[in-house]
Structure formats: C-alpha cells, structure tokens
Amino acid sequence: MGAPPAVHSAAMKYFLEVARSGSIAEASARLNVAASAISRQIAHLEAEVGASLFERRARGMTLSSAGELLAAHARRAHLDSERVLAEIRGLAHLGTGVVTVATSEGFAIDLLPAAIARFRAAYAGIRFRLEAVPPAEVSRRVADGDVDIGLTFSLAPIRGIRIERSWPAPILALMRADHPLAQRKSLRLAELAAHPLALPDKDTTIRQLLDISAAAEAIPIEPALTSNYMGALRNFSRFGGGVSLTSRLSVSLRFAEDGMVLVPIADPGMHVRRMELQTMAERTLPHAAQGFLAHLAQTIERLLAAP
C-alpha cells in the first residue's frame, strides 16, 4: 500500500460515513448521496489501498483490519487539520476555542460542571460541549474523534485510546446517615442484598461488576429500583428508599450536605475498575483542550486528596 488516500476526498468521506453508520444504505440517507455512488467510491478506495476495507455481513458492514487502520488515520488527520486551521486563526492562544467532553452520567452532574465553571472563570472565551453517555460510549466517541476528552470508568485497555491519567475507582454503597448499615466501616455484598437496592442498567461498570461478583458468590440480587438515570437512583437513597451504588467522585461535591454517607464494599470484585481521562491515541489536542485536560486532572487529584 502506498501513501494513504487524501483525507478530504469524497471517497474518504463516504468511507468514514459507512464505517460510522454500518451500512451503505444508511450512509446514503445521511449524506443524501446515491448508494451506487458510495459503493463505487468505496470500491475505488479499496483498489487504491489494495485491501478490503469492510467485512460484508447480513446485518451490515463492519471495518476489516485494514479498514480500521485507514479509519484511524483519516480521523486523526482530519482532527489535526482542524487544529492547525484553528491555530492559524489565532485560536491556539488559551483564550478562545471549543472543548468537547464526553463522560458517564455521574461525572456530568457535579464534577464536570464545577470544573468547567472554574476553568471559564480564568478563560471566559473558551466554550464547552458536555455529553453524558454510557461508559463504553465515552471511549467510542473519543476513539472516533467525536470529542476531545473522555472521563469515564474502564475495566480494560481500549484500542485507539490514550489514557492521560488513571485512578482506582472502587464501587461504594451510598445511603442515608440513618440507614441501619451507615455506621459500618465496610460491607459485604451479601449484607447489601438483604436491603432494598437501587441499581443502574447493565451497560454500566457498576452493574457489570455487581452482577459478576454476586454470581461468583451465589448471591441473588433483586433490586427495588432500576434506572438509566443515576440521579433517580441517588434520590431514591436520599429519600430513604434503600442503598444505591456509586463512586466517590460521582457524589463528592454534595453527598454529605444531603445527609448521605458512603460505605466501602469489601468484595474484591467491586475494586477492579479505574477512572480514566482519555484522549484519542496519536492525536494532538487543540491548546484549549490541553489546558482543560490539565485543569481537570488537577481538580480530580485535589478532590481525591480531600478527607
């Protein structure tokens, strides 16, 4: 394979849209371009690189190994060209620009809004877009170059992701200060299972680790409340409905003033995840995003060091 195809060519644009949408028909609808034209351009692109870029399956198209390499190159090149243009226009100075952040919901309630507000107090010309999505979706958006920075929980390394900073993120039990278990130094899952539980959906690291740990210990878990909204689970606990599960930083700014306590869970399986600040591998962030990344890491360090 020779030099990579031009990143701004029509063929590359169509290729990336098919990779994103998973089918030529869907890409055709999104781009308002005939499916035959997209198919033709992709065929030309495959001939140019000398490899199949997609695996054709009954339910759609997925990137081949060669396609994944080309897509990663194209996304990085596109983002780098945007960064260079921004710097040429004067946005390299840490006074203007746009920073995009994806995060899991717990961090979007208090931690990130507070960090963004403090950062903008010093750099009022910088604007932000904050997206709250499931943890795996955070990493996907970072790897695809859809956002500059991701803050999420992770259980294992992910291809296409650079881990800028990482911290242990054990799962804790959140309950009212007058709950029967509130004075305990630590708890076991078997003890928690005897009380009403409020749990998130199965696409969260909390639920995944809980289900694995409970199954390993043959502990039946029948939650009193399940929800895809973390705020509802915490308020269920705040109103005396039972126990919810969280991380320290997801509630660190206000759980005590709400009359809540955090109790560690002793089961080893509840300690294996990590909190990560993620960026796209091999990408150079715009200066505004670099500045906020450093600010956010310092904010997290300060909160974790607090008693």
TrEMBL record:
Keywords: DNA-binding, Transcription, Transcription regulation
Pfam families xref list: HTH_1, LysR_substrate
All residue ranges annotated as the HTH lysR-type domain in the record: 12-64
GO terms under cellular component: cytosol
GO molecular function, one term: DNA-binding transcription factor activity
PANTHER family listed in its UniProt record: HTH-TYPE TRANSCRIPTIONAL REGULATOR YBHD, NITROGEN ASSIMILATION TRANSCRIPTIONAL ACTIVATOR-RELATED
Family affiliation: Belongs to the LysR transcriptional regulatory family.
Descriptive protein name: Transcriptional regulator, LysR family
Annotated source species: uncultured Alphaproteobacteria bacterium
UniProt lineage: Bacteria, Pseudomonadati, Pseudomonadota, Alphaproteobacteria, environmental samples
